[in-house]
Amino acid sequence: LGAKKILATDISDEAVTAAKENIALNDLHNISVHKTNLLADVKGKFNIIVANILAEILLNLIPQLDSHLNKNGQAIFSGIDYLQMPKIKRALNANDFKIDLSMQQGRWVGLVIVRKDK
Question: Domains in the chain and their CATH numbers?
Fold first, then answer.
């Protein structure tokens, strides 16, 4: 979709291996894949951070957003059970982020997240 550089991360060795194989099969050269726990070993800031994982894990990712997201950047979260939304909202608020867009299909919620206006 026009991204010049993509960093993909996962905690699973199998997911990292599969991603690298798919990147090679599709002859892509702008994607690097690293094994890490969320953003623990990631350096730099990004325009977009995307995570499709359960709310319990997203709650650990939210405090890491500020140091990894550019000033006008966005985070896109999916894979959230609607029953977990109150926890997600509280964590976002506590870390100076807000929901810019929310989408729901059945039980599952997707969010576009931005910094709060200051």
Answer: 1-35 (no CATH), 45-115 (3.40.50.150)
C-beta of residue 8 within 8 angstroms of C-beta of residue 32: yes
For residues 81 and 108, the answer to whether their CB atoms sit within 8 Å is yes
pTM of the model: 0.90
pLDDT digits (tens, 9 = 90+) for 48-91: 999 999 999 999 999 999 999 999 999 999 999 999 999 999 99
Tell me the pLDDT band of 118, cut-offs 50, 70 and 90. low
Structure tokens at 98: 């807000």
For the residues of the chain, what is the DSSP string, one character each?
A: ---S-EEEEES-HHHHHHHHHHHHHTT--SEEEEE-STTTT--S-EEEEEEES-HHHHHHHHHHHHHHEEEEEEEEEEEEEGGGHHHHHHHHHHTTEEEEEEEEETTEEEEEEEEPP-
Q: In what order do the strands lie in the sheet with 46-52?
A: 46-52, 69-81, 108-115, 97-105
